[in-house]
Design brief:
23 helices, two-stranded antiparallel ribbon, 572 residues, mainly alpha, 71% helix
Length: 572
């Protein structure tokens, strides 16, 4: 009997499960190696509205075949400031639908055919010279191994039906009332959380159902729990990331929890609907089919896959109208006063709908560029340790880098064919200014990062504060404080003597200034000199070309609209 258990049950079940999960890994890795970078860039580009986000999440997850990978990708994009919370929420909704395609594929009755297909694609993978061909072969080999592993598991689990001890234990896992249903859902969620794959859990459940070890309604209930347990991976991926990234993970968790809570009371009526629907797929999943003299239930995997698809589509349709509500609620989770600072990753003035109107576009670009300079000045607040400074220098740098790219992209659109020289001159000047402001932002970021990482002595800190004050004063030439008159033209020659004096003071200080402080301060003074040069170039560029359209063109455009707190389009 021990030999039979080992040979007939343990070997095919453990081997089949391993092959099944390896197939999932191979398929996911192959597809992601082929397309994940393109998918990530496409996702960041097109997921601008909730509807586009759902469609993008569904399509990309359906291709890469991993809702976990998709959700982790979204969390990473949110953390980098490339994607906002609202589009991330809608993409995660779509990912839940996209992953059901894989569940449907797993349910296909290919059986042992998977082994020969896996062998063919394994040979292609071994002998192929091209990375592209190898990745395609890897994905196809994984796809085939999924079916072969599932077929092995089904055969290994079938003998359990003849063991009274096992069936007595499994009889407790029968979703025939609400309490047992909840129990089955929680067990499946726990298993999925441990193995980090809802597809693997559903594959195991399909095997148990096809072997007749679990009745088909219980197998369906387990698939419901698998959708709940898969949220653990996105939560773990967000642990050390930004608050918005955590909120994207919380969105994934809350969607599935709400969906399960809504679906459980409707479970038994939905089973009657599913029984009717299965008539189109071959009949009642609870009726066995005799194969080689043994009972099997080939329609159970189909029922599980169909219900999983229904659950995720139903959940998305139910919750999609409340994307805005989710965003508002989740934005308050873990909220602190520090988060009330402006989100510089999102443009305030760049309205794509008005890009075709030169007067509006020029005004918007100038206002957004000035906003970028103000955001770059926040690095000095970080360096000072000011209370209203952004919490994370790296996160702030990522946010304004996104803003800089948005400004450049918006400006480049203005270079239409056959552009009059006068307007082309204004646009070219704006692009040059944007290049200088981006370099200024990078320089101030280097100053803040160096100061933040170096523990200065009291004497060293005093010198550092003096350098910060000089840079801040220089920035007033291009971005004066609110209500302050704009100073005369920026002049680097007026500021350099002050930097020279600070350098001499740094070098003449004796033992009261540690050597490490001295080296760091000299480097910061070098960054300050670059900042002054860039400030002068920005100021000179603004004065070199009048930031107005020629009168003949301006008369053909709408009046200039000013953003909140912005100045009208006028010469600098």
């Amino acid at each position: 009997m021990q030999s039979d258990i080992f040979k007939d049950i343990l070997v095919p079940v453990i081997g089949g499960l391993g092959i099944f999960m390896l197939g999932l890994e191979f398929m996911s890795n192959g597809i992601q190696s082929l397309a994940v970078n393109k998918m990530r860039a496409l996702l960041a580009k097109i997921a601008g509205t909730p509807i586009k986000g759902v469609l993008a999440g569904t399509a990309i997850t359906g291709i890469i075949q991993s809702s976990t990978a998709m959700t982790v990708m979204v969390v990473g994009l949110v953390n980098a400031g490339v994607m906002g919370l609202r589009p991330a929420i809608s993409v995660i909704m779509g990912a839940n639908i996209g992953t059901t395609l894989g569940n449907g594929l797993i349910a296909l009755p290919l059986g042992p055919l998977g082994l020969i297909l896996a062998g063919i694609f394994a040979l292609v993978y071994v002998f192929a010279k091209s990375d592209k061909v190898r990745n395609i072969a890897l994905a196809c080999m994984g796809f085939a191994l999924i079916f072969y592993g599932l077929n092995l598991m089904t055969g290994g689990l079938r003998p359990l039906r003849n063991m009274p001890e096992v069936m007595q234990v499994l009889s407790a896992l029968k979703a025939d009332n609400f309490l047992s249903l909840i129990y089955c859902v929680l067990i499946a969620a726990l298993v999925t959380a441990m193995i980090h794959s809802s597809s693997a859990t559903i594959g195991i459940v399909m095997g148990l159902g096809a072997a007749g070890v679990l009745d088909w309604t219980t197998a369906v209930a387990f698939s419901l729990g698998a959708d709940l347990g898969t949220t653990i991976t996105s939560w773990m991926a967000s642990l050390n990331l930004s608050k918005n990234a955590k909120r994207a993970a919380y969105a994934h968790i809350s969607f599935n929890i709400i969906g399960v809570c809504v679906t459980i009371p409707l479970f038994f009526p939905s089973m009657m609907v599913l029984t009717w629907a299965m008539g189109f797929f071959g009949g009642d999943p609870g009726v066995p089919v005799i194969v080689n003299g043994k009972e099997t239930f080939p329609l159970v995997p189909v029922a599980v896959g169909l219900y999983s698809t229904f659950f995720n589509v139903f959940n998305t349709v139910l919750l999609f109208p409340f994307v805005g509500v989710f965003e508002r609620v989740l934005s308050r989770v873990g909220h602190t006063s520090a988060e009330d600072v402006e989100d510089y990753s999102q443009p305030r003035y760049l309205d794509p709908r008005l890009a075709g109107d030169p007067a509006h576009a020029l005004s918007a670009i100038q206002n957004e560029t000035k906003r970028y300079v103000g955001a770059a000045a926040k690095f000095l607040d970080i360096a000072r340790g000011a209370e209203n400074a952004p919490d994370d220098v790296e996160e702030h740098a990522g946010a304004i880098d996104v803003l800089s790219r948005e400004i450049r992209q918006y400006t480049s659109v203005l270079f239409a064919p056959n552009l009059p020289y006068a307007r082309a001159d204004v646009v070219a000047s704006l692009i040059e200014e944007e290049d200088f402001t981006a370099s200024l932002g990078e320089t101030l970021y280097q100053v803040a990062r160096r100061i933040e990482r170096h523990p200065f002595s009291a004497t060293g800190r005093e010198l550092v504060n003096s350098v910060i004050d000089e840079i801040s004063s220089g920035l007033q030439s291009i971005e004066p404080a609110s209500g302050s008159p704009k100073p005369a033209a920026a002049n680097m020659d007026d500021r350099m003597p002050k930097l020279v004096a600070l350098r001499e003071r740094c070098l003449k200080l004796g033992s009261e200034l540690p050597a490490e402080d001295r080296g760091a301060i000299i480097a910061i003074l070098g960054s300050a000199e670059r900042a002054f040069y860039l400030i002068d170039r920005i100021d000179a560029e603004r004065r070199s070309v009048a930031r107005v359209l020629p009168a003949a063109e301006a008369s053909r455009t709408s009046p200039v609209l000013e953003g909140p707190g912005s100045a009208a389009v006028a010469p600098a």
